[in-house]
């Protein structure tokens, strides 16, 4: 009898280039066979299209991409992780022998697209939520192989907390979460489940009671408040769409009931099928949002890589497939709403509308495979995103 297994590549298989598309392997074979191993190229990573209705995205996944490219004779320039960018912007430039980068393209593009898509969707929800908390609860919509990467990308995009246990070990993020309906069903009595949770975990995490398992949300919210009093931090409404009606009406009803009964301190957390429209509608009556699937299954940001120049005859010569600009490009930023795109090798300064000098965004991270720039902390990246979100418009 065949044993079940998890279909997850090892880190070694990823770094060796085995986690790739077969046509890249065959390309490497042909490059070697026909004496083209020394051909040097410039590979530009860019996003030639964004999801429908998107005017910008948040670049994420750079650290993991660098982990793949490091240790090879490659020089890599990139915009900083967390940079807000727009369609057709150059994001990275990889310079070196084509044979040294070809087997890694599938993996680093997959990481960049996955992380950028999740960070971007989180950032959009962060904008809609205003000053309300956003908690990422979307791991159950993903393969466990990407749990940590997803939590990281969502946190970069502006989530206030994530739920994955492993994210504390790998990212230093203390996971947050409330309780599932299963806990209450197993106890058979919501009061017993709430009491047990508070008695066991109140010194570790805020006590937030799930209040829609058996009875009306208003009834259970008052039950939890009467049972736990000041120990109760908040209540979570996870009402399924089939039973929901207008969620705002339910939240307002719960809020009024809590205030009338002297429980104004109790916060209201809403989760379950939330996206941008629901967050925007509820943000003035809700204290926090638990958002899962709409972030985990974020619309894909189309990040791709193309050769744009080949080193020949002692210089970089423009060479690219049709539809792509045959030239390495640089972004000069004045602010998140004023950027200028120029040839990468153009050293002339670029000036902003106010007369100040723009800042080149693509900077060197690897030189001949060696890391030459300090990588920012996760909180620094997140703060960089939040500063840009103050200015950018949805």
Instruction: Indicate the overall shape.
Output: elongated
User: Mind telling me the CATH class of the largest domain?
Assistant: Alpha Beta
- Helices, by number, come to 14
Oligomer: single chain
Total domain units: 2
CATH superfamily of the largest domain: nicotinate phosphoribosyltransferase
Q: Determine the mean pLDDT.
A: 96
Give the second-level CATH assignment, the architecture of the largest domain. Answer: Alpha-Beta Barrel
Range of strand content: 15-25%
N-to-C CA distance? 54 Å
Structural account:
With 394 residues, the protein is α/β, with parallel strands linked by helices. It has 2 domains: 11-118 and 299-389, nicotinate phosphoribosyltransferase (Alpha-Beta Barrel), CATH 3.20.140; 130-296, Aldolase class I (TIM Barrel), CATH 3.20.20. 35% of the residues lie in helices and 22% in strands. The protein contains 14 helices and 18 strands. The protein has helices at residues 11-16, 22-33, 62-69, 105-129, 147-156, 166-171, 181-187, 190-201, 217-228, 241-244, 247-260, 276-282, 293-296, 378-389; strands at 40-49, 57-58, 74-78, 84-85, 90-97, 133-136, 161-162, 208-210, 234-237, 267-271, 288-291, 302-312, 315-318, 329-335, 338-343, 359-360, 363-367, 370-371. The strands form 4 sheets. Strands 13-12-1-5-3-17-18 form a 7-stranded antiparallel β-sheet. Strands 7-6-11-10-9-8 form a 6-stranded parallel β-sheet. Strands 15-14-16 form a 3-stranded antiparallel β-sheet, with no helix packed on it. Strand 6 (133-136), helix 5 (147-156) and strand 7 form a beta-alpha-beta unit. Helix 9 packs parallel to helix 11 (247-260).
């Amino acid at each position: 009898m065949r044993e079940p297994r998890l279909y997850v590549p090892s880190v070694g298989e990823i770094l060796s280039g085995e986690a790739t598309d077969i046509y890249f392997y065959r390309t490497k074979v042909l490059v070697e066979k026909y004496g083209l191993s020394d051909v040097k190229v410039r590979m530009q990573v860019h996003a030639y299209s964004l999801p429908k209705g998107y005017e910008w995205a948040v670049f994420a996944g750079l650290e993991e991409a660098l982990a793949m490219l490091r240790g090879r004779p490659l020089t890599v320039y990139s915009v900083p992780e967390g940079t807000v960018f727009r369609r057709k912007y150059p994001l990275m430039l990889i310079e070196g022998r084509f044979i040294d980068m070809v087997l890694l393209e599938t993996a680093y593009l997959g990481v960049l697209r996955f992380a950028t898509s999740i960070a971007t969707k989180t950032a959009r929800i962060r904008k809609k939520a205003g000053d309300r908390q956003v908690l990422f609860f979307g791991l159950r919509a993903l393969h466990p192989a990407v749990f940590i990467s997803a939590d990281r990308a969502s946190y970069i995009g502006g989530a206030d907390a994530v739920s994955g246990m492993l994210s504390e070990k790998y990212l230093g993020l203390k996971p947050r979460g409330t309780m599932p309906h299963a806990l209450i069903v197993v106890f058979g009595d919501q009061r017993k489940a709430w009491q047990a949770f508070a008695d066991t975990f109140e010194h570790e995490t805020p006590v937030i009671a799930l209040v829609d398992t058996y009875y009306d949300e208003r009834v259970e919210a008052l039950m939890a408040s009467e049972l736990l009093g000041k120990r109760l931090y908040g209540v979570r409404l996870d009402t399924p769409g089939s039973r929901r009606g207008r969620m705002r009406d339910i939240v307002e009803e719960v809020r009024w009931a809590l205030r009338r009964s002297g429980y104004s301190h109790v916060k209201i957390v809403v989760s379950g099928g939330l996206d941008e429209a629901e967050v925007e509608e509820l943000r003035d009556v809700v204290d926090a949002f638990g958002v899962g699937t709409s972030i985990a299954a974020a619309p894909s940001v189309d990040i791709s890589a193309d050769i744009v120049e080949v080193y020949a005859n002692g210089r970089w010569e423009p060479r690219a497939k049709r539809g792509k600009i045959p030239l390495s490009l640089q972004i000069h930023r004045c602010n998140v709403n004023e950027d200028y795109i120029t040839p990468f090798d153009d050293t002339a300064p670029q000036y902003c509308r106010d007369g100040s000098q723009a800042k080149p965004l693509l900077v060197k991270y690897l030189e001949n495979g060696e890391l030459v720039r300090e990588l920012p902390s996760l909180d620094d990246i997140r703060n960089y995103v939040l500063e840009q979100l103050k200015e950018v418009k949805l």
